[in-house]
């Protein structure tokens, strides 16, 4: 395990499988995740045809907020999903 993996594994909601997915899309550090944010990171995961559920989106946001994904308020979850869907629609329109 590299130092970068260890750093990401220290974040809430992220396990080995999640960290491997993040590394596959170029997220190697907590700073990388902060820079891109949960929605853009989720969008990149989906763009690589890596099948993840919305829970991954919530887990990423929870990791950034240092809370369990299930503790994210419902209104924030709805905004995250809406933002992720809007960015996906924009990408399809420009493709």
Describe this structure in words.
This protein has 95 residues and is mainly alpha-helical. The chain has 5 helices and no strands. The mean pLDDT is 90. This is TfoX/Sxy family protein. InterPro entries: TfoX-like (IPR047525), TfoX_C (IPR007077). It comes from Cellvibrio fontiphilus.
Strands, helices and their partners?
Elements: H1 3-9, H2 16-24, H3 30-47, H4 54-65, H5 74-94
Helix pairs in contact: 3-4, 3-5
Protein name: TfoX/Sxy family protein
Organism: Cellvibrio fontiphilus
Domain TfoX C-terminal: 5-83
Concise description?
The protein has 95 residues and is mainly alpha-helical. 71% of the residues lie in helices and 0% in strands. It has helices spanning 3-9, 16-24, 30-47, 54-65, 74-94.
Strand/helix succession: HHHHH
Give the second-level CATH assignment, the architecture.
Orthogonal Bundle
Shape: globular
Structure classification: mainly alpha
